[in-house]
Amino acid sequence: MPEKKYSTLSLKWDEMQKILRDPILLATIILVGLSLIIFIVWPLYEVLFQSFINDQSGSITLAYYREALSHSENIQVLFNTIGLGLFVSFFGTLIGFLFAYAEAYLKLPFKKLFNIIAILPIISPPFALAMSFIMLFGQQGFVSKVLLGIKNANVYGFTSLAVVQILTFFPVAYLVLAGLMKQIDPSMEEAARNMGASRWHTFKTVLLPLLTPGIANSFLLLFIQTAADFGNPMVIGGNFNTMAAQVYLQAMGNYNLKEGTALATILLTLSILMFVLQKYWVGNKSYVTLTGKPSRVRELVTDKQTLTIFGVPCFLISLFIIVLYVLIPVGSFVNLWGIDYTFTLRHYVYIWNLGIKPIVDTTVLSLISMPITGVLGMIIAYLIVRKRFVGRGLIEFVSLLSLAIPGTVIGMGYVLAYNQPPLILTGTGTIIVLSFVFRSMPVGIRAGVASLQQIDPAIEEAAQDLGASSFKVFHSVTIPLIKSAFFSGLVYSFVRSMTAVSAVIFLVSASVNLLTVTIMSHVDVGRLGVAAAYSTVLIAIVLIVVGILLFLLNKIGVNISDVQG
Amino acid sequence: MTVASVKIQNLKKVYQGIKGKQVVAVKDVNLTINPGEFVTLLGPSGCGKTTILRMIAGFEIPTAGDIYIGDTRVNSLTPDKRDTAMVFQSYALFPHLNLFDNVAYGLKIKKLPKDVIAQKVKDILAMVGLEGMDTRAPNQLSGGQQQRVALARALVMEPSVLLFDEPLSNLDAKLRIYMRNEIHKIQRKVGITSIYVTHDQSEAMSLSDRIIVMKAGQVEQMGTPHEIYAQPATPFVADFIGMANITPGKVTAVNGDQLAVEFLGITATKKNNGKLKASDPCKIVTRPEGLKLARTGTIPCQVVSSVFMGESQDYVITAQEQKLQVKEYNPITKEVFAAGEKVFLNVDLDSMHLI
To answer: Mutating which of B10, B21, B22, B69 best tests the A interface, going by the most A Cβ atoms within 10 A?
Structure first.
């Protein structure tokens, strides 16, 4: 008897029944889908739409692109962005590799430092290093003016920007590569050595091929971050302008919103291209994850020569970075940087008198968005990993896409989408909370997805089999099982919201202002001491809140240090 | 507790495989499981047995066909609305809950009073031999104990149907036999309708009222353990259940309900199963333990290999250019033949079976 052929559609329909017969699940999927459409897709659509539609006639036009690209300045900016991206990604990955190798293979005494180096960029304003750079090498710089006696040193431009970005972003490459290296089973390398390969030959023929996808991955991740970086180019880019900053300058500075949308679309295309490349091309090529947990701990290298070759640069770079970060609180207590280094509290007094509101606003809004992000992120992770339904791939793509969308693009999208009915949110705290939620959610989702994939789906099936509805299963089984990912999502969401700048710079208003934006404007007018004081306050709040959270979590027995994603 | 029957009609499950290829996991299966019966779905991996179980539980949606528990058609019910309880292969204990809360989980959802729950959990834990371990976490229990918790958690729900998905495959050999006997005892005691999925024939033989042998999504044979072993319907069943020699033969004459069949150079008389005519080719199933080697006998043969297994001497022999396995139990008390020896093969005609 020939087998009856079923159409793909009818088989998919069968699978859909699982969702359709479960109203709570169905409602959740619809709500999640709608929220992603309204708060990610729609703003992006608005940017695209505005860039192609003539203001007066309403017809489709390429005029804004023609206009934008007719300025040689904008072409230059585009090349700057790509060139800087390649440069920073290359050296960032290289340094990240160096650190990862040292971490995974070498017996070095100061490896604890690496953790600090990896965390510092996350908990401080994204342009912190640019500020420190100005304090060291600027016109009033400690190195340039006091030590070297250079007058009118010009710190602004490509070199400083590239160095600052490399130092800010290389920890991403370090974390990705160190994670991979730790997953490689040492017995593979031992097998190579056993067959007569030298350490260098083993590195070349075993380790490097295994890591190639990871290297490509971190290169693309760094490119995406560099291209999206707004704070550093604004602070230290000088005449060397990049797309992310140019979008903002065109739209808000020159009031040429249309040309801004055209530039934003170009930048968005570039970022999404890299994201798709990273997620769907490189992302699928990893061999390493297949082997899972290594069978044994790796015997660390103690050979003096190797330790020196890798250890010295790692140590120097770490030291330099820590000095740069320490400069910020130091600068906040100094009377007038570059001229008068006496101790003072006047910057803090100034903050107290003038502007405690941004501090309160930022903290409150970040705290509000924290639980929303956490819960929504876990729901989406659960749907992505555990449920099969039409549009699942799309939900996954869109929710992770916001990692790749440059903040200035989505910020502009929010302005365009929510300044008219049906949703008027411009100038409110709500719009900022929404931007916080959808900007910081992907990390929680990834952590959730990673933990869910390690949990036997039968456990949730057992709960359902015993009579639990899908809602009950989610809160009585799923969430407790992935609580580490859930809480790390919470912590990360708070930290990221506190330090966000690129999207929210479009959204702040007279009624709601944020710390990072305030700091930038103070840097802009040269009030470095005040900026440093605000930054110190910001870092202090982050550390205090995170410290309290970790303490509470520790009390209830949750350890979030080992969460991936 | 209601003891329900399970009826499966024209059940079919097709999966969308990779590259648009469709995988038929279950093909038009019809089954009726009587109230209180213990039925095993037995077959190699990928034969569709687990898929059937998961469709009964509600985790998979049938592509076609109906499933009835008692008189209720359950196709459109979610797993939580079905009166089934499953014992999972991986046990699927809730790692964040202690033993008591694991077992009480379903009862709490039923919103039973606290004291009732406590009593039920206590009783069931006593039944599976875990009394007094209420506060242990699952990871503080041994594999066998976890298995009992999984069983208790399902039993305490007093479901109409108990489903077992290869529950013993994660245990070591000795414990597996022990737990097999426990499950058997408990099931007989509570008299619950049970469907048990396994690829282990000894589990199927020892537990079941009825075995359903499956192959490639279809039912190959249904019957009591005795029927399945003694009268396998197909070479597949013969080979899958125990060891079997399948030798070609030929029907030489039919005489009423008796027929004469020729194989390995001898002629034997067997009961006709109705399908075979004179001069039809057929297959003869013999079990290794139904064959004997001796210095004298009917079929000349040569020993190819002879291995001492302790409880038995396992031979491979050739007779009439056919390779056969022969198993002699308790070899210590018997004459043992070495590889290369020319001896005779004697067939126990009662234990041979015609396909």
So the answer is: B22
What pLDDT digit, counting tens, does each position of B92-147 carry? 999 889 999 999 999 999 999 999 999 999 999 998 888 888 899 998 898 889 99
Query: Considering only CB atoms, which chain B residues are within 8 Å of A470?
Result: 78
Q: Do A477 and B110 touch (CB under 8 A)?
A: no
Euclidean distance between CA atoms A353 and B126, whole angstroms: 71
Q: Which residues of A touch B10 (CB under 8 A)?
A: none
- Contact B94/A3, CB-based, under 8 Å? no
**Summary count for chain A: helices (H), strands (E):** 27, 4
CB B329 within 8 A of CB B263: no
CB B234 within 8 A of CB B221: yes
Residue B175: the pLDDT is: 85
Check A11 against B80: CB less than 8 A apart: no
Contact A11 B14 (CB under 8 A): yes
B16 CB within 8 Å of a chain A CB: yes
pLDDT at residue A564 in the model: 42
Q: pLDDT (tens digit, 9 = 90+) per residue, A282-308?
A: 766 655 544 445 556 777 887 888 888
Q: Which residue of B has its CA nearest to A2?
A: B27
B88 touches chain A (CB under 8 A): yes
Do B280 and B154 lie in one domain? The reply is no
Cα-Cα-Cα-Cα torsion A48, A50, A54, A57, nearest 10 degrees, comes to 120
**B184 and B262 share one domain:** no
Substitution target in B14, B69, B73, B161 with the highest count of A β-carbons within 10 Å is B14
A-chain CB neighbours of B157 within 8 Å are 466-467
**Chain A contact for B305, CB < 8 A?**
no
Of the three residues B236, B270, B288, the one that is the final residue of a domain is B236
- pLDDT digits 0-9 by tens, B183-200: 998 888 888 999 999 999
CB contact under 8 A, B94 and A5: no
The pLDDT tens digits for B255-284 are: 777 888 888 888 888 877 667 777 888 888
Q: How many domains does chain A have?
A: 1
Q: What residue numbers bound the domain in which B252 lies?
A: 243-354
Instruction: Tell me if B165 is assigned to some domain.
Output: yes
CATH of the domain at A453: 1.10.3720.10
Q: What is A135-164 written as a DSSP string?
A: HHHSTT-IIIIIIS--TT----SHHHHHHH
- Nearest-Cα distance to chain A for B52, in Å, is 15
The pLDDT confidence band at residue A1, using thresholds 50, 70 and 90, is very low
Residue range(s) defining the domain that contains residue A385: 13-45+347-565
DSSP A16-57: HHHHHT-HHHHHHHHHHHHHHIIIIIHHHHHHHHHHHB-TTT
| CA of A295 vs chain B CAs: smallest distance (Å) | 21
For residue B232, pLDDT beyond 60: yes
CB contact under 8 A, B84 and A465: yes
ipTM reported for the complex, 2 dp: 0.82
- Percent over 70 (pLDDT), chain A: 95
Residue B231 and residue B289 in one domain: no
* Chain A residues with beta carbon closer than 8 angstroms to that of B77: 21
Nearest to A11 by CA among B131, B60, B320: B60
A475 contact partners, CB below 8 Å, separation of at least 6? none
Task: Report the residue from A11, A465, A481 with minimal CB separation from B63.
Answer: A11
Type of residue at A461: E
